[in-house]
Write a structure and sequence with these properties.
The complex is a heterodimer of chains A (290) and B (223). With 290 residues, chain A is mainly β. Chain A is 6% helix and 57% strand. Chain A has a domain of 114 residues. Chain B folds into three domains: 54 residues, no CATH class; 66 residues; 80 residues, no CATH class. Chain B is 76% helix and 0% strand. Chain B has eight helices and no strands. The chains are: A mainly beta (290), B mainly alpha (223).
Chain lengths: 290, 223
């Protein structure tokens, strides 16, 4: 079930008349399309968003409802938001063969129940998700991805977009070619982060039995630890440097990676978590948390 | 002609001769070989080892000079010789050494010294040779697995570029830019694998770079 409202944009005629330079901007805005739709959903609903260009902001709320607010300025695209069972599909459609990248742009603000599952595709622009605890799959080309207080099985793939995750829990798999990653106040038990050219910063808890794999070709991998943490460390840079401030107990047996490149291996405290850091020619820093 | 059991076979089989010289013992050995696949396999293996040994001897590798210096130093230390050679050691020098000044030594001592020299040469040469063979095997293995992949990716890339419109969007520009980054890493990894073919980390990075390139090309083709 859905309700749609088409909201007219406010236009200040005085500004338009007094400043002809602004008229162009204002007249463009006259053609802006705002769409708001509401969908009642059951627990564990699925929301898919496909947007070639623009900003996608998703926030969790306490209602059993999905609310979609979309804005686009061009007549060459249209926005669809439809419900099929417990799934809501949101999509930006190109309705003209000749279209500029600017025309493609549509911005979304979407509210979903906390346990919703998200599938987001946004080539360029920005993706921001907060407080959603369901599984999530985000794919972008150039768009950066920001997650906050997310949980579940999180998979993020970008080509050049950066990724930041604050207080993320659950299982996280993130990959990119040239995007950098920041994983802050992390509470995940499984992290697999791989980028080619970007930097990776991990600052969070190493949960018992957790596995943390960070890998890049170049750039800096930085991991922060506290004196109370417990992990087995394997840090190898084939052609770069590895620096560690952790006092490690050396492994009992020679590790196969230790014969290639520069490697630091060992156990910190009881070694409850597994931390594997690997770089081709980048630098790896394992630093004590300030 | 008497028959031979497997347990007697080794005693009666003379590895220095071919079991085809017609003597009664050899005939019984031959008869046994015809019916016993296990002993036949043993004899075949022995033949291969002999052939490999002959091949190695035929190549006549020149041992490094350090072997001769080390040997001479050891002999001098034990007081068996006192002169120091004035020229770079060579095989003729060795022959002279054993036939001339050492002729006064008892034969068992000479034989022991000769054996020690041979062992030193064998150990000195086997390391580098095995290492070279291993390197080549790794290199061949990596090349055979990556060459078809590389060729496929190259043709996919050509096809992708030929069908591409002249004007690029920011998204496709970003994809191309990242494709260049991945190509650069592929080149770096290929160099690393060539330098150190046994390095499994370098190979892993190379394979992953190919995977990334394939993903990027697929994304480009989707547009």
């Amino acid at each position: 079930m859905s309700t749609a409202q088409f909201l007219p944009l406010r236009f200040n005629w005085k500004t338009g008349l007094l400043a002809p330079g602004l008229l162009l901007v204002a007249s463009t805005a006259v053609f802006a399309h705002n769409i708001e739709k509401h969908f009642k959903v059951e627990p564990r609903s699925v929301v898919t968003i496909h947007n070639p260009s623009g900003k996608v902001v998703v926030k969790a709320w306490t209602k059993s409802e999905v609310m979609v607010i979309a804005t686009h300025t061009s007549d060459k695209v249209e926005v669809d938001a439809e419900q099929t069972g417990n799934r809501v599909d949101v999509m930006t459609h190109q309705i003209s063969n000749s279209i500029s990248p600017e025309d493609l742009r549509a911005d979304y603000q979407i509210n979903v129940p906390e346990d919703a599952e998200l599938q987001i595709h946004d080539d360029s622009g920005e993706v921001s998700v907060a407080n959603v605890l369901g599984d999530m799959n985000v794919e972008t080309v150039g768009a950066g991805v920001d997650l906050e207080d997310a949980a579940g099985y999180l998979t993020v793939r970008t080509v050049g977009g950066s990724f930041q995750c604050i207080r993320c829990a659950g299982r996280l798999e993130v990959s990119s070619i040239s995007g950098s990653f920041k994983l802050l106040s992390l509470r995940s038990y499984h992290v697999h982060a791989q980028t080619s050219k970007g930097n990776i910063l991990l600052d969070g808890e190493f949960l018992p039995n957790g596995i943390y794999r960070l890998k890049n070709y170049s750039g800096v991998i930085e991991v922060h630890f506290s004196p109370g943490d417990s992990f087995d460390l394997s840090a190898t840079s084939l052609k770069g440097k590895v620096n560690s401030q952790a006092s490690l107990i050396p492994p009992a047996h020679a590790h196969p990676v230790s014969k290639f490149g520069n490697a630091i291996l060992g156990t910190f405290n009881a070694g409850h978590a597994k931390v594997e850091l690997s770089s081709f020619d980048g630098t790896i820093n394992i630093l004590k948390r300030e | 002609m008497t028959t031979v059991a497997c347990r007697d076979f080794l005693d009666r089989f003379d590895s220095s001769d071919s079991p085809r010289n017609g003597s009664p013992a050899d005939l019984s050995v031959q008869a046994h070989l015809r019916h016993c696949p296990s002993c036949r396999s043993f004899v075949e293996d022995l033949g291969k080892i002999r052939a490999a040994g002959a091949q190695l001897a035929a190549s006549d590798p020149e041992p490094p000079a350090r072997i001769w210096f080390a040997l001479r130093a050891e002999l001098e230390k034990e007081g068996l010789i006192s002169d120091t050679p004035s020229e770079v050691p060579s095989k003729s020098w060795l022959a002279e050494l054993f036939s001339g000044k050492f002729s006064v030594l008892p034969r068992p001592v000479l034989a022991g010294g000769y054996l020690a020299a041979l062992l030193a040469i064998a150990f000195g040469l086997s390391g580098p040779i095995n290492s070279r063979i291993n390197r080549q095997r790794w290199l061949d293995g990596t090349q055979s697995s990556t060459e078809p992949l590389s060729a496929q990716l190259m043709s996919a890339e050509k096809a992708s570029f030929s069908s591409w419109p002249a004007s690029e969007t920011p998204v496709t520009a970003s994809l191309h830019q990242n494709l260049e980054i991945v190509d650069n890493y592929i080149s770096l990894c290929e160099n690393s694998v060539r330098e150190d073919p046994e390095n499994e980390l370098a190979r892993e990075y190379l394979y992953e770079a190919y995977q990334q390139k394939a993903d990027l090309l697929a994304q480009l083709n989707d547009r």
